[in-house]
UniProtKB/TrEMBL annotation:
Family: Belongs to the steroid 5-alpha reductase family.
Source organism (scientific name): Alligator sinensis (Chinese alligator)
UniProt GO cellular component terms: endoplasmic reticulum membrane
Name of the coding gene: LOC102383204
Compartments where found: Endoplasmic reticulum membrane
Name of this protein: Very-long-chain enoyl-CoA reductase
Bilayer-spanning residue ranges: 119-141, 200-218, 230-249, 269-284, 290-310
């Protein structure tokens, strides 16, 4: 066993042993083993030491079932923590992949990497999105410890400040609702260590934006109410479009399947952007923050919008390449995030 002192027999599980616990997908034969079984050895990806040997595994077993077998030998490494791969530095195998379809012989050699403590994506999004919602209010209500008690800071805020608070709150409340009722995640968990980085990004920018938008010395947009009205209309349209795309993507996995499918436009006009881009949810998201920038005419909001666009472009390109790689009949007209351009 990895890290143990002194000789110790490696865990071996035999499906021909009637005393063994056999999960779904594995077979135990009481009267000999005539089935074309496979043996599976699992090595540490870094040291190449053997951690576990699974004796006589059914060829139709999935990687998910291999994870469960491995978990019985090492309870501290629950399936979500396991990265099982064919090569030490290769790509992690998907849960639904079948053992006999992999390029392995009668003894399959797999490599294990510990991904560390995990946290569910639903909880990740709830934490990330709830923070900005409440942090913004600390600045909107002009708490004394934020702006001080100067007499100049007791005046009522400009109407656009109230409108910005409503729009910002609406955006994150929508995200929370989508997290609970709409989103279906292809990956169940994320490394716990990443939650700190993600929260610093969302929470930090929320505080930075809120500080300047709600500052008592804040000046309203240059073109007045007309500029604000156009921005609000654009904001609402983009929010509706973003929500519509998320619902359409969720419907692709209504049966609980994690198999990737090509998303197509529906009768909802907001989904027609699928004719031109692979990730219209990112297109609408960027549009939301552009409209918020126009509405507030605030430099920190513009910088945040620029960073959002860069990050979402990277995500969109990755997803677009994945679609092209997995589907030969993928629509050729589509671009990653901006129609006809990018």
């Amino acid at each position: 066993m990895l890290g143990a002192t002194g000789p110790r027999r490696l865990p071996t599980i035999s499906n021909c042993d009637p005393r063994s616990v056999t999960p779904v997908g594995f077979m135990t034969l009481q009267k000999g083993c005539s089935w074309p079984w496979l043996d599976v050895e699992i090595l540490d990806w870094k040291t190449k030491k053997q951690l576990c040997f699974l004796d006589k595994v059914e060829p139709h077993a999935t990687i998910r079932e291999i994870r469960l077998m491995f978990h019985k030998s090492y309870p501290q490494w629950y399936p979500a923590r396991q990265s099982i791969r064919l090569k030490p530095k290769g790509k992690a195998l998907r849960d639904e992949e079948i053992l006999q379809n992999l390029p392995v012989g009668t003894t399959a050699t797999l490599y294990f990497k510990d991904l560390g403590p995990q946290i569910g994506w639903t909880m990740v999004f709830l934490i990330e999105y709830a923070g900005p919602l409440f942090i913004y209010f600390l600045f909107y209500f002009r708490m004394p410890f934020v702006y001080g008690l100067d007499e100049r800071f007791t005046s009522r805020p400009h109407p656009v400040v109230n409108l910005a608070c409503i729009c910002h709150s609406f955006h994150y409340i929508k995200r929370l609702i989508e997290t609970v009722f709409v989103h279906r995640f292809s990956h169940g968990t994320m490394p716990l260590r990443n939650i700190v980085k993600n929260c610093l990004y969302y929470w930090g920018f929320a505080a930075w934006l809120a500080y300047y938008i709600n500052h008592p010395l804040y000046t309203p947009p240059s073109y007045g109410q007309k500029q604000i009205n156009i921005a609000v209309i654009m904001f609402l349209l983009c929010e509706a479009g973003n929500f519509s795309i998320h619902v359409a993507l969720s419907d692709l996995r209504r049966d609980g399947s994690k198999i990737r499918k090509i998303p197509y436009p529906t009768k909802n006009p907001f989904t027609w952007l699928f004719f031109f881009v692979s990730c219209p949810n990112y297109t609408y998201e960027v549009g939301t923050w552009i409209s918020f920038t126009v509405m507030t005419q605030c430099v920190p909001v513009a910088l945040f919008t620029l960073l959002c666009f860069i990050q979402m472009t990277i995500w969109a390109k990755d997803k677009h390449c994945t679609y092209l790689r997995e589907f030969k009949d993928y629509p050729s007209l589509r671009m990653p995030i901006i129609p006809f351009l990018l």
